[in-house]
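protien #1 (seq + structre)
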Amino acid sequence: MSPSEKAGRWSFWGGAAVVFLLILWLLNDILLPFVVGIVVAYFLDPVVVRLQRVGLSRTLATTVVTIIAALIAVGVVMAILPPLFGQLQDLIAKTPEYAVKAAMRLQPLVEPLREKFGMPSLSLQSIQAEVSQWAGQALSVAASFASQLARRGAAIVNLLALLFLTPVVTFYLLRDWEKVVAAIDSGLPRDHADTIRRLGRESNAAIAGYLRGQALVCLCLASIYGVGLSLVGLQFGLVIGLIAGAISFIPFVGTFVGAVLAIGMALVQFPPEWLGVAKVAAVFLFGQTMEGNVLSPKLVGDRVGLHPVWIMFALLAGGSLFGFVGVLVAVPTAAVIGVIVRYLVERYRESSIYLGRSAG
């Protein structure tokens, strides 16, 4: 291939990438149901394939899987959201009271340090006022968001589209998944098709290994934390446990946030009965032991090649550029970029630039 042909090819693919990103940016407000549909279809495709192997047609298998998944989602939402929202509202309302209790417990420990370093005295009234103001702002923001959501027709349309359009998108993508993959394969440049297929298989392994595995890990941790904290009698244990499990897909963040919230609440609620605090800490210790030794090694493994720092950067970058849609596609995009970078490094180590000999 001549240099001019190579330059033309690079210009074509570079222009296509720019156009694709521009379309994503322009259509960001309406992409959520389609992105969610793609993600759900990607998760459910292995189930459809297994049903095909036992004799069902692709359409019938897709119908069965879509209906069951929708029923499960509705059941989970109806069972979890009402008590979750109730506990969350009570938690925000009682935060000032809990902050004062925590400050009273910490004051004997902080007072010697305050005197030693000449720090200002700890005023319980100022703490309560500050936290009350924060709680009021949180409730007002939530109320304002709800009212704006009710007034804005576009927001209502997007919400309805997410609820009703996503199952339709999921169904058609699941039914035609093999056709979509075949159409993409037929459009690959012929002289690089084998390399692209190889990179595609590696990317799929990384994405599937992380997303499907990490989703199961988050579900297991949310169950462990939510049920465990509720059983030991921690107030708002369900909401704290579900929050900790849900954000465990961000490395270290879910554990840290959940532990701080749970142990902080335990310090307010249980002392002088310190056994309750120990039980709360034991729940998180058990959850972390299960995650580190059983859940992550079995469900995720080390084959995905995604470093925790890279995942956190991808999530922040995706959310900053494209909002919630960006968060959804951040990890798959990071996995693909990781596979491409490893391939380029492999090619570099085989090149004369790295080996130090002439191209001839």
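ok now protien #2
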Amino acid sequence: MNKIKIAGFISAIAFLLALGGQQAMCQMKPINFTKDTLSNGLQIIYHIDKSAPVVATIVHYRVGSRDEHDTQTGYAHFFEHLMFEATSDIPRASIDKYIQEAGGDLNAHTSFDETVFYQRLPSNEIKLALWIESQRMRGLLVDPVGVETQRGVVTEELKMRRNNQPYGTLLDEICLGLFPGSSYSWTTLGSEEHIANATIQNFRDFYDNFYQPNNATLVVAGDIDLEEARGFVKAYFDKIPKAPLPKRNDFKILPMTGEVRKEIEDPKAQLPGVFIGYRSPALDDFDYYPVALLMDILSAGESSRLYQAIVDKEQIAVQVAAFPLSLEKSGMSVFYAIAAPDKNVKDIEKAIYREMNKIIEKGISDEELTKAKNIKEADFISSKKDVLEKAQTLARYNSYYGDPSYINSELSKYLSVTKEDIQRVAKQYFATDKKVVLFYMPKKSS
């Protein structure tokens, strides 16, 4: 499965600049779609793309780690795995086999606010994809064999990702520090203990509450005939009964009282690292766009401010980056740097603040803003050329905004950002002591 990783947050996007923002913009055509809703509440989006004989399906469930209880964490991630087990009509360990034998691929991911399953197949296999997703939606077998199999798989994954790689607990620590008392205070991996202690009934209750048609968006995109696809969707999904709306936690984010600072001995780290987390805007806040551009100005490529100052000029770090993590109810921005040999992580921390303060005090140049917009524009346009990525984006916009047409308009929000917006958000979100600062230090020789 695809998982949240630091490397996943920071894409190597410098080469996209060569595309040229204006050239990409000229090539962008509106993405047309049709939206339906079944009587059971399932929302469906159809998008026709005849460029290749391929169909992609997305099922986007509005359930993530945010929807868990503080004594039952990791359930959404667990179901990302369990959904590949058996259903009432699909034998155990057969879903991957069916898709691969049909010449397709499939995957899934879980985040704080969503769990998403996606398939890509030759277009003549559209019925197979829809049948599988309808089976998983309400026919999943939450039984001892599947649960115990995936309990072992998930437990090993938790150990591997937290204990067997350097800086493996950094997101856990940052979330706990930034969102105390909130269900954003734990990551999607959740607690190994909670997964170990969960009963079959615990998991069945979670499945019955959240994996329902009225808590999902289905996207069917690619080389399809619209009316034929509608007929298949109706045949497989319309018979699923309508369920009550999911019961959700009362969500709240408490104010931070100050800085959280922690030093962590990490036996897997070869070099010290510094990680600095701030709260930042939620997905539906316009400030998300200037913050995202600010992160690129600071860290996108070797010409970025942080790289030039800390890696090239001062040579106190071998790697430095910054990324925003967008959440539905809030957000976070994380800066990190890996120290050069024999360099002090506290000097790196000061250097990061110094570069941010330059923007707070003096703003950015026209050239920097243009470059950041070109990066976003080229990335945005490039991602809309793939049918699976378009399907994922349509599902996301429908789920979070109730409006898939954002796929044609969100770019304009980036392009409308001004230098003044960049300077304002730099001061508003990053000129504060309300942050999490983590120093990961290699284990000292005994």
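The chain has two domains: 30-237, 260-442.
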